[in-house]
């Protein structure tokens, strides 16, 4: 498809891809193998024109980590759906077993040049701006674990339905990696679960089991695993009965203060991220975290 070719040539969203130079070089990776960049789509979109509802299936093995390519593809799909006035609702779910999304792809932040880190952060911002500010009704059908950026992705949606499986967890666990959730991650969480819950969750980098997540309002509903998608579809039908304009204005009213703060500070936020993530101590923390993930598996 033409847009996929454009994606590969990185010509589609120029705003995402230009980035100023940031001066420092990251340490080179010593042990982490880079995955081959697959050319198969990382996201499958099924759009039913009769209902006006699109379903975005994340299908980037093994864990739907949010890489530069993944996020670029996500942004392009979102832009296309947003521009289609007939598309009123979006359900986001995972085609990978047991995982909704493992969050930002750590390999995009480890051993990479400042320029690469800046380019990556810009597309992370873009994904958030597009989803948090979407005119569509957005529902996360969380059918697996959803740490860090995966949790953020679901927090950008209007409603979260999670599989009631105690093996799964969700939360902003950044501090456990030795990194800090930026202000717009933090504010998205505050806007959902309140200040006190966010403070505890973020300081401790808590990952919540579904029942605990429901208790603090991090997810809105728990359902048996095999019903996540059908309940998401039913919920969408209900949300779409509300007069569109009134719902959209209300959503903007609730979210725009946070959105505007990032919009007006994008470049500073990128500079902040790049200078933070390329620090030797932070790179070391990321390396140790990746090692821990591998050891846990062994
Ligand atoms: C003061 C100024 C502040 C400015 C702002 C500064 C900084 C902010 C910066 C960044 C914010 C980042 C947010 C993030 O999202 S960081 C990512 C955090 N993610 C995690 O912690 C999740 C880690 N993964 C897991 O816990 C498990 O993988 C998971 C529960 C998702 C699935 O478990 P499962 O057992 O099924 O799979 P694994 O065997 O663990 O993993 C398979 C394979 O995938 C690799 N992998 C897992 N997660 C990631 C990831 N996020 N990125 C890249 N790769 C990942 C894992 O290492 C395995 O690889 P391999 O061994 O098969 O090669």
TrEMBL record:
Entry superkingdom: Eukaryota
Cellular component, GO annotation: mitochondrial matrix
Keywords, sorted A to Z: Acetylation, Fatty acid metabolism, Isomerase, Lipid metabolism, Mitochondrion, Transit peptide
The reaction(s) this protein catalyses: (2E)-tetradecenoyl-CoA = (3Z)-tetradecenoyl-CoA; a (3E)-enoyl-CoA = a 4-saturated (2E)-enoyl-CoA; (3Z)-dodecenoyl-CoA = (2E)-dodecenoyl-CoA; (3Z)-octenoyl-CoA = (2E)-octenoyl-CoA
Chief site of localization: mitochondrion
Database matches in PROSITE patterns: ENOYL_COA_HYDRATASE
GO molecular function, one term: delta(3)-delta(2)-enoyl-CoA isomerase activity
EC number: 5.3.3.8
Gene Ontology BP, a term: fatty acid beta-oxidation
Coiled coil: none
Pfam (any one): ECH_1
Subcellular locations according to the entry: Mitochondrion matrix
Pathway the protein takes part in: Lipid metabolism; fatty acid beta-oxidation
Similarity section: Belongs to the enoyl-CoA hydratase/isomerase family.
Subunit structure: Homotrimer.
Purpose: Key enzyme of fatty acid beta-oxidation. Able to isomerize both 3-cis (3Z) and 3-trans (3E) double bonds into the 2-trans (2E) form in a range of enoyl-CoA species, with a preference for (3Z)-enoyl-CoAs over (3E)-enoyl-CoAs. The catalytic efficiency of this enzyme is not affected by the fatty acyl chain length.
Protein name, UniProt field: Enoyl-CoA delta isomerase 1, mitochondrial
Annotated organism of origin: Crenichthys baileyi
